[in-house]
Amino acid sequence: MANTNIGAKFYIAVDSSNNPDPQANDLADSEFAALTWVQVPNLGTHGDTGVDQNMVGYSTWDNVLNPQQKGEATGAQPEVEFLDETSTGMTAMKAAASVSDQNNYAFKVEWSDGKIEYNRGLVGAPSYPKGANEDFRRVSFPLAFNQEPVFDTA
Q1: Each residue's pLDDT tens digit, 58-94
Q2: Beta-carbon count within 10 A of 10 CB
Q3: Is residue 27 over pLDDT 90?
Q4: In degrees rounded to 5, what are phi and psi of residue 99?
Q5: Architecture of domain 9-152
Q6: What is the DSSP letter of 29?
Q7: How many CA atoms lie within 13 A of 119 on its CB side?
Q8: Is the N or C terminus of the chain more exposed, i.e. has fewer CB atoms within 10 Å?
Q9: Is the CB of residue 117 less than 8 Å from the CB of residue 149?
C-alpha cells in the first residue's frame, strides 16, 4: 500500500558539536547510517530527488529516426521549505547554506514506515517567502545533489 509523507522526517548530518558535517565523497548505505543525524523539524515541502539525465540525438540524412544516447547526468535540485523556527537542525541548515560554503552535506529522509532515503549535496542560501495575512513564516533552501540517492529499506 502506498503511504503519504505524513510522519516523515528530514535530517542533516552533524558533527559532535551539532555543526553541519561536510561529506566530500560518495557514501554507501552503511557510511550514511554511521553518521550523526539531527532532525530539521517542520518540513512543509520537499522537491523531487533522483537524477536528471539528458537524452541526446544527432540528426542524419539517411536515418528516419535520429540515433540517440544518454547524455550528461546531474543530481536533482530540490527545494526544501520549513517553518522558520529555531532548532538545532535549522541552525545546522542555515550554517551549511552560507554563501561561501562549497561543501557537500548528507541528508536523510525517514518515512513513518521506517524506509530511508539518503542524499548528499550542496545547500544553497536560504530565501524567506512572505505571502498573505494567514501565511506562516517560512525558510526555503535549494539543494543540489552530487550523488545518486541511496535507499535503505530495512
Answers
A1: 999 999 999 999 999 999 999 999 999 999 999 999 9
A2: 19
A3: yes
A4: -55, -35
A5: Beta Barrel (2.40)
A6: H
A7: 22
A8: N
A9: yes
**CB environment 12-48: b (16+ within 10 A), e (fewer):** bbbeeeeebbebeeebeeeebeebebbbbebbeebee
Within 17-153, where are the H helices? 29-33, 88-96
Find the helix or strand (DSSP H, E) in which 145 lies: strand 138-145
Amino acid at 78: P
Spell out the domain ranges in the chain: 9-152
Q: Find the length of the chain.
A: 154
- Beta bridge pairs of residue 98: none
Tell me the three state secondary structure of residue 79: strand
d(CA 113, CA 20): 26
pLDDT in tens, 51-62: 999 999 999 999
Q: Which residue's C-alpha cell is 557537500?
A: 104
Q: State if pTM tops 0.90.
A: yes
Helix (H/G/I), strand (E/B), else coil: 107 = strand
